[in-house]
Amino acid sequence: MRPALARFGSRLLEAAITLWLLATLCFVLLRAAPGGPFDSEKAAPPEVQAALEAQYRLDQPLPMQYLAWLGDAVRGDLGPSFQYPDYTVNQLIANALPVSMLNGGLALLLALLLGIGLGVWAALRAGRWTDRLLMGLAGLGLAVPKFVVAPLLVLVFAVGLHWLPAGGWGEWDNIVLPVIALALPNIAYCARLTRASLLETLSADYLTAARARGLSETRLLFAHALKPALLPVAAWLSPALINVVTGSAVVEQVFGIPGMGRYFVQGALNRDYTLVLGVVLAIGALIVAINVAVDALRAWMDPR
């Protein structure tokens, strides 16, 4: 019990240090970028400009701004948004995070289901034309970036066929194209990874011995080969999540989805310091939590 608690405490400390370094680096880079959140207000009277800077602590020295923001963030207060003055950053994230998690979760689930299924199917038909065709399509899926896939999906299924809406949020059919755009590269990578890992596992000595004992190929696959073959897929879940999170910025912009990625892009363009910092912290905390969960999953799947 004590080693487990020690490992848990060590993970918490690592997570806290990681988030602090991430927030500090983001704070420095934002303030080093040219321009400011109220550059468009230069035509306003000096007293109005001074009042705006005082309201958002921009009149203080940079170290004081950092310490004040960090103290509020530790208490869970991410401050007011510069771009959306009627909302706090906490409120914006509370509204946007479920949207992004729904899109990202469905995209990752679709990638796992289709990717593992297609990878297993290709491995069982290794060397045949169907296997080569599938792996060729997977390579194409990896090569095409999301900022190309998303507009193409809109052009084909919304503009051309009129099957699905081109954007918006609130109905089930608004989810389909964004989820597909986020999932396609991950489906391709998961299929290739599953195929390669399963082929290696099926050639292992212990499976050769199991075949000699008369076990059927179906039982070999599902009872002995599939679980160890999916260990690389479990290890891939962390970078897959990062891929979904980074891709959401493009996809949410294209489809007009009010998620974390869209707020991040708009906040960066408008120098909304508190909003960008809040989104970075929220996404960083989510990635740290997923990494811990993935490590636990890998430990459960690894027979060693």
Summarize the structure.
This protein is an all-alpha fold and 304 residues long. The protein has two domains: 2-74; 96-301, MetI-like fold (Orthogonal Bundle), CATH 1.10.3720.10.
* CATH domain class name of the largest domain: Mainly Alpha
Largest sheet descriptor: none
CATH architecture of the largest domain: Orthogonal Bundle
Helix content: over 70%
Distance between the termini: 20 Å
Q: Based on DSSP secondary structure assignment, what is the total number of beta strands?
A: 0
Average residue pLDDT: 80
**How many helices in DSSP terms?**
12
Weakly predicted, low-confidence segments: none
Instruction: Say what the CATH topology of the largest domain is.
Output: MetI-like fold
Task: Give the CA-based shape.
Answer: globular
Strand content: under 5%
Q: What number of structural domains do the residues give? A: 2
CATH homologous superfamily placement of the largest domain? MetI-like
- What structural class do you assign from the helix and strand content? mainly alpha
Order of helix and strand elements from N to C terminus = HHHHHHHHHHHH
Radius of gyration: 24 Å
